[in-house]
Target: Non-homologous end joining protein Ku
Amino acid sequence: MAVAARALWKGYVRFGEVTAPVALYTATSTSERISFHTVNKETGNRVRREFVDSATGKPVEKEDQVKGYELDNDRYVVLDPEEVASAVPESDKTLRVQAFITCDDIEKVYFDKPYYLTPDKMGTEAYALLRDGMQKKNVAAIAQTVLFRRMRTVLLRAHDKGLIATTLNFDYEVRSAKEAFKDIPDIKIEGEMLELAKHIIGTKKGTFSADEFDDRYEAALAELIKAKLEGKALPKRAAPKVSKANDLLEALRQSAGMKKPPAASKKRTGKAAAAEGKKKAAEEGAPAQRRRAG
Model:
């Protein structure tokens, strides 16, 4: 994807006494995704969103809409747009590097959104100094500034010829992993099952390449729209079969390419065993009968 022609933010990055003018561009885009409008099913007309008073049911014009913090049911602290704006921290548009760290020092759950941080024409050397220094030391930088009307913590990493700036979630925004996983029972996997799992993981080891992965949801939506236009219906897909505990070992063996034991090796009883015994005896007696006949 080409970098957007217009910067989202312009300012400076400062480390020590070195300052470089920079610009921030979005690194991701949803413009290529299929988008939908809400439509009236009966008329086929597009539906317009409208804010209405919850008590009177009357529409509320934009100039009459203000922010409200709910204290309890139907009681709010009302804030005018000017009052909300006054709470935005003052900004000198400077990303101040507070520390250099290894990338592994930050859990990925804190990563928010990536951006491209590029140099201004007048500060390319200072920018390159930061980029090359981080590459040589194999570190990233932690910086803070006001971005998009909020104080943000930003992780800066050298990438190719430039820098990636990733906004980070604050601690209060990230749910506790301990809380999220508390209901998972303690199960110890060992023996053949663990060895087979390790073998399968080893055979699937590779590297990440973004162009190898397709957005199947977008493709499915495109197919659905085409089918609807042509008056066709898409076939319904069966839900994946969940591996049950008593089926895990067999599923692992099949994943590892191990064949099932041949049916002949199983213990035979009853008529099948008797028939097999007679056949074997007849085959063993045939050479003796041929010798006597000779």
